[in-house]
Amino acid sequence: MDFSTHSSPSGAEPLTFIEMIDQTTIISLLSTLAILFTALGISKLVLDKHTPGRLRFLFVWHAFDALIHFILEGSFVWHCLCSSTSVREVKGDYFPTPYYYLGQDQKGRVWGSQAAVGQEGYLGAMAQLWMVYAKADRRWAGVDLATLSIEIITVVFGGVMAVLVCWDLARKNVARGNLAMIILATAELYGGYMTFMPEWLSGSANLDTSNFMYKWIFLAFFNGLWVVIPLYAIYVAGADIYDAIWVRSIVEEQKKDE
């Protein structure tokens, strides 16, 4: 991914890598690891011990994918639709809300994670997490209509499809699992394209790639996972479907020769 290099949107001097490793950033990264280990634990519980390595890997990925969609991205959608506050209540810079968002005059108000900072409990913690990521991509602090539209279908459709893939792999329903993997992988690749292409075409105004953490970990690595692994899923599922069609064609030819 070729992210254009921009300094901090606020115009401040970029922070060093060490300066960015605060408690909230550590908790955010650890939460992602916790979700990954949860997915690994689920695979240990439900998969047959003789499951091929490629399918075990794809099960873990889709379990991780579903949890990310429901827990993390679901909280982003929630804050975009349900969390708002006065501009005066927001500390520092804020991401402006579209004027007629949700059919109402939003002058003087902001929506999204930036409006929920300071809340207690799960939703407040998720707001803090998204504000950490928003340091690299400002759109995730508030409501960007294109991003929110993609995230809504990602949570609802992508999350359910990822669960379906896991269900099929655990039940050894490989045929439907392969089809579901291809559909989901294609949707996620398209979603990633539609998330970043408008930003690149507009000069990456909301991206901060002024340092290693933002550019290579938050933007390149985490988003790159949803490019490389879906492509691998398409390759594995496509190969299985191709083999099945090839075997069927041989059987049909043999029947004709009888």
From TrEMBL:
Primary location class: membrane
Entries under Pfam families matching the protein: EBP
Domain EXPERA: 54-234
Domain of life: Eukaryota
Entry keyword Cytoplasm: no
PROSITE patterns assigned to the protein according to its UniProt record, in alphabetical order: EXPERA (PS51751)
Subcellular location: Membrane
InterPro entries per UniProt: EBP (IPR007905), EXPERA (IPR033118)
Keyword NADP attached: no
Bilayer disposition of the protein: Multi-pass membrane protein
Residue spans crossing the bilayer: 26-47, 59-78, 145-167, 179-196, 216-238
UniProt keyword list: Membrane, Transmembrane, Transmembrane helix
Family membership noted in the UniProt record: Belongs to the EBP family.
PANTHER family (alphabetical): EMOPAMIL-BINDING PROTEIN-LIKE (PTHR14207:SF1), STEROL ISOMERASE (PTHR14207)
Annotated protein name in UniProt: EXPERA domain-containing protein
Biological source species: Podospora pseudopauciseta
